[in-house]
DNA sequence: AACTCGGGGCA
DNA sequence: TGCCCAGAGTT
């Protein structure tokens, strides 16, 4: 397991690789971000960004999502997959914003996770990106990278990964680290092709060392 | 903890 | 054409 010091050193190297890492979901206000992150569950940000410009031109406020028939909203987001449940969630979520939050996006994780289609990851992205609250949203990239590097244990749950990262990374770096890990996982340490050969973290990476030894053994 | 939902992108 | 992508909700 990486110590706190080792974790920060690894993070520094990743930050050098992706100094401009930031949220890639197209949005221009907290409500658009919330919708975009809900849509991004189980699909890529690039795919979400294909539908959101048209979607946000048509739907500006929670009322707009409520006004339209479910089938119409389903068709508007059909290309991203899982569109039936996502359309239902967005209508429910819009209703809740109107009835319980004056049509505004709530600013706390506790309130956000009560919304339909909003889980731990989505809530953390919204609070950190829209409201500047320090947070580490653990998606599959963050989880995979943290486990490969040895920052946390392979068997850790998403919640345990998040708690470990918060312990080992200074709070003022949580939000930047979150995006840097995501970029590292998405563009370099990919699920099927980690690109260990060109990785600056190879000598300090648990999984990378294991892979190199396995290759030499052949 | 395991299962389900789903179309797009790429080999 | 079949594998890979990548969270929330339910049981």
From TrEMBL:
<dbReference type="Pfam" id="PF10576">
    <property type="entry name" value="EndIII_4Fe-2S"/>
</dbReference>
<dbReference type="GO" id="GO:0051539">
    <property type="term" value="F:4 iron, 4 sulfur cluster binding"/>
</dbReference>
<comment type="function">
    <text>DNA repair enzyme that has both DNA N-glycosylase activity and AP-lyase activity. The DNA N-glycosylase activity releases various damaged pyrimidines from DNA by cleaving the N-glycosidic bond, leaving an AP (apurinic/apyrimidinic) site. The AP-lyase activity cleaves the phosphodiester bond 3' to the AP site by a beta-elimination, leaving a 3'-terminal unsaturated sugar and a product with a terminal 5'-phosphate.</text>
</comment>
<keyword id="KW-0238">DNA-binding</keyword>
<feature type="binding site">
    <location>
        <position position="189"/>
    </location>
    <ligand>
        <name>[4Fe-4S] cluster</name>
    </ligand>
</feature>
<keyword id="KW-0540">Nuclease</keyword>
<keyword id="KW-0408">Iron</keyword>
<dbReference type="GO" id="GO:0003677">
    <property type="term" value="F:DNA binding"/>
</dbReference>
<dbReference type="GO" id="GO:0006285">
    <property type="term" value="P:base-excision repair, AP site formation"/>
</dbReference>
<dbReference type="InterPro" id="IPR003651">
    <property type="entry name" value="Endonuclease3_FeS-loop_motif"/>
</dbReference>
<dbReference type="InterPro" id="IPR003265">
    <property type="entry name" value="HhH-GPD_domain"/>
</dbReference>
<dbReference type="Pfam" id="PF00730">
    <property type="entry name" value="HhH-GPD"/>
</dbReference>
<feature type="domain" description="HhH-GPD">
    <location>
        <begin position="39"/>
        <end position="187"/>
    </location>
</feature>
<dbReference type="InterPro" id="IPR005759">
    <property type="entry name" value="Nth"/>
</dbReference>
<dbReference type="GO" id="GO:0019104">
    <property type="term" value="F:DNA N-glycosylase activity"/>
</dbReference>
<feature type="binding site">
    <location>
        <position position="205"/>
    </location>
    <ligand>
        <name>[4Fe-4S] cluster</name>
    </ligand>
</feature>
<keyword id="KW-0378">Hydrolase</keyword>
<feature type="binding site">
    <location>
        <position position="199"/>
    </location>
    <ligand>
        <name>[4Fe-4S] cluster</name>
    </ligand>
</feature>
<dbReference type="InterPro" id="IPR000445">
    <property type="entry name" value="HhH_motif"/>
</dbReference>
<keyword id="KW-0227">DNA damage</keyword>
<dbReference type="InterPro" id="IPR011257">
    <property type="entry name" value="DNA_glycosylase"/>
</dbReference>
<comment type="similarity">
    <text>Belongs to the Nth/MutY family.</text>
</comment>
<feature type="binding site">
    <location>
        <position position="196"/>
    </location>
    <ligand>
        <name>[4Fe-4S] cluster</name>
    </ligand>
</feature>
<dbReference type="GO" id="GO:0140078">
    <property type="term" value="F:class I DNA-(apurinic or apyrimidinic site) endonuclease activity"/>
</dbReference>
<dbReference type="Pfam" id="PF00633">
    <property type="entry name" value="HHH"/>
</dbReference>
<keyword id="KW-0411">Iron-sulfur</keyword>
<protein>
    <recommendedName>
        <fullName>Endonuclease III</fullName>
        <ecNumber>4.2.99.18</ecNumber>
    </recommendedName>
</protein>
<keyword id="KW-0326">Glycosidase</keyword>
<dbReference type="GO" id="GO:0046872">
    <property type="term" value="F:metal ion binding"/>
</dbReference>
<keyword id="KW-0479">Metal-binding</keyword>
<keyword id="KW-0255">Endonuclease</keyword>
<keyword id="KW-0234">DNA repair</keyword>
<dbReference type="InterPro" id="IPR023170">
    <property type="entry name" value="HhH_base_excis_C"/>
</dbReference>
<dbReference type="InterPro" id="IPR004036">
    <property type="entry name" value="Endonuclease-III-like_CS2"/>
</dbReference>
<keyword id="KW-0004">4Fe-4S</keyword>
<keyword id="KW-0456">Lyase</keyword>
């Amino acid at each position: 397991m990486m110590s706190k010091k080792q974790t920060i050193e690894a993070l520094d190297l990743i930050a050098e690789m992706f100094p401009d890492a930031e949220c890639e979901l197209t949005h221009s206000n907290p409500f658009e971000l919330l919708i975009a992150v809900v849509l991004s569950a189980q699909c890529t940000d690039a795919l979400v960004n294909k539908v959101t410009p048209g979607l946000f031109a048509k739907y500006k406020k929670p009322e707009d999502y409520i006004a339209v028939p479910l089938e119409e909203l389903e068709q508007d987001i059909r290309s991203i997959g899982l569109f039936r449940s996502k359309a239902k969630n967005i209508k429910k979520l819009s209703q809740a914003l109107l009835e319980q939050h004056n049509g505004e996006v709530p600013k706390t994780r506790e309130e956000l996770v009560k919304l339909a289609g909003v889980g731990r990851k989505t809530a953390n992205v919204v609070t950190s990106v829209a409201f500047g609250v320090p947070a580490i949203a653990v998606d599959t990239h963050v989880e995979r990278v943290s486990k490969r590097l040895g920052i946390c244990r392979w068997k850790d749950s998403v919640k345990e990964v998040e708690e470990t990262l918060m312990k080992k990374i200074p709070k003022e770096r949580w939000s930047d680290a979150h995006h840097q890990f995501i970029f590292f996982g998405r563009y370099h340490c990919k699920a099927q092709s980690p690109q260990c050969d060109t990785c600056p973290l190879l000598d300090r990476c648990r999984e990378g060392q294991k892979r190199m030894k396995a290759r030499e053994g052949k």
